[in-house]
Amino acid sequence: MKKLILFKFRVILMIFTIFSASCRTAEKVNGDDYATRGIEYYNNEDYNQAVINLEKALELGTDIYAPEYIHTILGNVYSELGDYSKALECHRQSLEINPQTYQSWVNMGIVYRKLEDFDKAESCYLKAMEVNPEYTEMYVSLGALYIFKQDPETAIKYLQEAISLQPDNSIAWANLAIAQALCGDFKQCDFCIDKAREFNYSRIDELELKIEQYKTGED
Fold first, then answer.
1. What is the second-level CATH architecture of the domain 31-127?
2. Which of 49, 64, 161, 173 is deepest in the core (most CB within 10 A)?
3. Angle CA(199)–CA(176)–CA(174) in degrees, nearest 5?
4. pTM of the entire predicted model
5. Do residues 76 and 107 make contact, with C-beta atoms less than 8 angstroms apart?
6. Residue 99 in this model has a pLDDT that exceeds 80
7. pLDDT tens digit string along 46-84?
8. Where do the structural domains in the chain lie, given as residue ranges?
């Protein structure tokens, strides 16, 4: 099957808080500062430093950040580094702590999609839907999955659902443009590109080039 170029998703972030019966004191050493730095490194794409700090946060324990949050962010970091085995392990650890962490189900699904294990990816996304049917990123991920599976009609359904939940989701609009192009509806495709641009899609030039290839039959 010809591999379809899709655009990199911004990996999914979420904030949990946990409440401790004990107050943090100046003397108490825990991992919250490491977790904060690790997330900052992650957002700045310094993944090696992110690993060091997030691992230290888990070692020390945290008051502010829930451990399932740190595990799944660490999984995202390993995914960016191309270590999908460790990424899956981290997401599983997150879900062992809290099976209702729907963001972790989506993050794990993204790893399986990168591994082209589409059945497992779909299973993870549907589990996320079961836990939280209004989670926008899950619909965006399902849409991308069905584009990879060469099923643009189903992709359109899920991407439209994502947009109904979050009309300014630029990634949903960008991938909807691709799905519409695969269906040969270039009028709707152009409309979606305009919406992606309106909402500041970061890779708009690549998107337009990809769509032009579809229009000219080069892909």
1. Alpha Horseshoe (1.25)
2. 173
3. 40
4. 0.79
5. yes
6. yes
7. 999 999 999 999 999 999 999 999 999 999 999 999 999
8. 31-127, 134-219
